[in-house]
Amino acid sequence: MTRLAVFDFDSTLMDGETIDFLARAHGVGDEVAQITERAMQGELDFFESLQHRVSLLAGLPLERVQQICANLPLMNGAADVILWLKANGYIVVVFSGGFHLATGFAQSKLGFDAAFANTLHHKDDILSGKVGGEMMFSHSKGDMLLRLRSLLGIDSDSIVVVGDGANDLSMFAHATHRVAFCAKHVLKEKATFCVDSKDLRMLIPYLQNLE
Question: Which residues participate in catalysis according to the annotation?
Answer without folding.
Answer: 8, 10
